[in-house]
Design a protein that fits this description.
Elements: E1 6-11, E2 14-20, H1 28-37, E3 44-50, H2 55-63, E4 66-72, E5 78-84, H3 88-97
Parallel strand pairs: 2-3
Antiparallel strand pairs: 1-2, 3-5, 4-5
Length: about 100
Amino acid sequence: MEKSFIEMSSDKKYKELFIDVSDYEQPEPFEKVIQLLFKMNRGEYIRMHHRKKPLPLIQFIQENGFDCIVHQGSEIPWEIIIWHKTDLEVEQYCLTQFPA
């Protein structure tokens, strides 16, 4: 079974778009997340799992009207939370739910 997938779930007011790109080869993780970024609506954020820190993606996010939190963990090597910079409610939610 392929580990990488996109799943949408709801948490009351905000919608999480989850993607696990841990098994994808470059440049597919970047491409998949970029597709999601430009489909993302107000009230939504992306939670991504990756096997390494995606520096080009983080730079792209910050240069194109989005922001993110990046966590390094043990079970999940990297978790990246992404939202629109102008969506202040989602930003506050993400900063509370996924503290750095």
